[in-house]
Here is the input.
Amino acid sequence: MIIDKLIDAIKRTDNPSVVGLDTCLDYLPQDMLAKVKSLDDAAEQIFEFNKNIIDNIFDIVPAVKVQVAYYEMYGYQGMKAFKQTVDYAKSKGMIVIADVKRNDIGSTAGCYSKAYLSGVEVAGKKITAFDSDYITVNGYLGSDGILPFVKDCKENDKGLFILVKTSNPTSGELQDKKFENGNTLYEEMGDLVEKWGSELIGKYGYSSIGAVVGATHREQAEIIRKRNPHTFFLIPGYGAQGGKAEDLAVCFVNGIGGIVNSSRGILCAYKKDKYQGMDYAKAARQASIDMREDLNSAIKK
Amino acid sequence: MIIDKLIDAIKRTDNPSVVGLDTCLDYLPQDMLAKVKSLDDAAEQIFEFNKNIIDNIFDIVPAVKVQVAYYEMYGYQGMKAFKQTVDYAKSKGMIVIADVKRNDIGSTAGCYSKAYLSGVEVAGKKITAFDSDYITVNGYLGSDGILPFVKDCKENDKGLFILVKTSNPTSGELQDKKFENGNTLYEEMGDLVEKWGSELIGKYGYSSIGAVVGATHREQAEIIRKRNPHTFFLIPGYGAQGGKAEDLAVCFVNGIGGIVNSSRGILCAYKKDKYQGMDYAKAARQASIDMREDLNSAIKK
Here is the structure.
């Protein structure tokens, strides 16, 4: 099962982190940026950048999270770079999380699922356009917005991370509001995630149907960890957004329980004094090592 | 303002409906389907199909809603067909709603917004890859997931439809739950929509920041209509999903207040006995006329 593969990869690399490839042109070094005159060029340079990052981290980082928004803004050309990035990371043995936050109902949710998880039939052949291991989804529409994805996860050994408690400052505006039954919206969403994932639990006791739980909201993360014993967390918000290792440690039980994302902190490490003199790929590797140490020191305490 | 342009177009065509271009291969007639051997072929035939539909409805229907999931599943090639469809519909004077249900936070929401509303800068030139008039978005992440879009709407004369009460059977699972303050989740979301849209109100009293309100839930639609006097509705769920003209009439005040979507009912009309002998494009035109009459008979009562 994909959740077992993910946890095995985390154990093998001793690294509960995922590098977010939220690559926009601003992150590229000047010499690469200078080559960009069109959307095609942008897509080409972005993939080139990602490829170099992947080449320098694949042996020490278990997974990449590719944020599709950064590719979509460069048009269908950007979507080609997205696909190339997903394919390349998989070819190097990394687990790929497509951070797409898709959501829709019934057959339309099924289309998104086909795009990333299960494939469309074209002239008798099945093609999965952006073939990923995991995608992120938004559950505001309820069960019939999620179950088409869950079905495809079962049949194709894929996984989901469903938004429960997001890392942004105003996530509480709706997510922290209490219902009449005493539960907050994020708790209700979390309970649904536990239910939706109940048939996909692997050997470590975690399900392939996971949750997005921000590193920036320690109190809520602790509550969700207790309510959701089988839910594995994708944890954004570390670093640039202010989430600290000691806060997100509450997401882990005996060293397992989640995977922590860093995007800009890794991709733009070469712009920091600390990594002066390194090119972007070497700096990304060193920043990944530093992140691993920071996380493990808090999680394994 | 885009909301005024939309309402003017509805008045000019006397037609409060939008045709949903949720075009998948199954909808294509046999002779077109036979040409599809690859994702490139699929994308080409889908655009060809859409183009013929648009040519046959643009003078009697004010808008199209292009559901991106149906294009994404055909890969970046499908996304090219999506772009061609958006561009072609605009070239024929139609208002284009990109049904993308995107959602993310801060700068990532900003990337989605650049993709559809405001554009990226490439070599000193601004390019909006999928340049639409409206997009649909999901507000589960709260204000900092929505305000980047609202800002771009202000600056580029664009609009949003934010998911409030969706048309699917289980939409009530979360959306209808009552908070301690007595409001349901969909009411709270609706209140935020009214607030987010307060600075973009046009000459008819409606805002460019609208809401998605399903035709299948009459009771909730009536409540939202009362709470949200400035919110224009995008109304899915008519026809195939079971929503009836007399039910969704509660969304309208003096004949204005929303735009009703039909996708399969129009695109696949040629497969129905009622339109026998017509090709798909002619059948789509006749089905659009029939839908207009059905809607107006209920809305103008």
Summary: The longest strand of chain B covers residues 95-102. Residues 2-294 of chain B form a domain with the TIM Barrel fold (CATH 3.20.20.70). Chain B touches chain A through 68 residues (CB under 8 Å). Chain B has one domain: 2-294.
